[in-house]
Amino acid sequence: MLSRPSPRGRAPAVRPAPGQEEGRSRRSTAAARGGGLLLGVALLAAVILAGLAIGTKQIPADQVWSALFHPSGTANDAIVQRLRLPRALIGVAAGAALGLAGAVMQTLTRNPLADPGLLGVNAGASAAVVTAISVFGMTSFTGYLWFALAGAAVAATLVNALGGSRSATPVRLALAGTAVNAALFGYINGLQLLDLGTLDSMRHWSIGTLAGRELGLLVTVLPLLAAGGLLALALARPLGALALGEEAARGLGARPGRTRALSIVAITLLCGAATAVCGPISFVGLLVPHAVRPFSGPDPRWLLPYCALYAPVLLLGSDVIGRVVIPPYEIEVGIVTAFIGGLIFINLVRQRRVARL
């Protein structure tokens, strides 16, 4: 017996299986996130070009290209190669380091207001630099570099020890970091008040700037930045498990104590090296993870690469803005990032886009 055709002569629609719908959704999300990374690369290239072309003297894009790849010894070649290119490269490296350190810190502590300074890295670096200036008479940025790195490492180690080392909890780390920060900044302020020469020298470093930094400083700290960046990216999966809680992380095969200790090492290398070269720059490590999380999602495997791309965009963009606001003078990038970062962060909070961790 023949079956009746459907009323309209059409075969019934076949719905995809739930597994197929889930697979399509995952592929679509991955494609969108991949597109966001490509956009980050394009924006980073644009701000690098802007940083090479814009300043007290405007240089056309074709002359920037010629200075980079076909130099002829002109004044524009010298400006691009000796002044603006080192500034741009240091900005890329420092911005990526601060963005990665901020994302790792917020994921590690499950605290949306955490930034690398919570571990005492900035305070430790500043305390070491002020000691170098006041006690040892240090005057060069190269000398500041090693003192800042050592101070950052000592402060982070102290916070980790006070927080319980491998048994530390996010709350204990935050409390230990707050206490160490308060003590170190009290020491810094006291030493500056006792020695006005130290205060005058310290303000040039502590304001946070990319100007006047030689490429040799970046070459010196590049191994530390590379080691910290690779370690942070390698910890993406265990950090994602740790964000679910201690018990869930252990159930997924992660080792919370080891992950926490290695994360602190990565943060210290990244933020300590960036702070040593540029001085303490605020809001980059705090803001960028919040700004990109609606697009990258909370998974550190996506969040960390997003932060590594978009943090240099914020830092270099702020540096370019600081050059053009009140020409022929420049506003230091640390001031601009604090102002822009504050405005953007307030906007994110008002729109309730700050993701819960």
From TrEMBL:
This is Iron chelate uptake ABC transporter family permease subunit. Residues 1-26 are annotated as: Disordered. It is found in: Cell membrane. Residues 1-19 have a biased composition (Low complexity). Its main location: membrane. It is a multi-pass membrane protein. Pfam families: FecCD. The chain crosses the membrane at residues 34-55, 88-105, 117-138, 144-162, 174-195, 215-240, 261-283, 329-349.
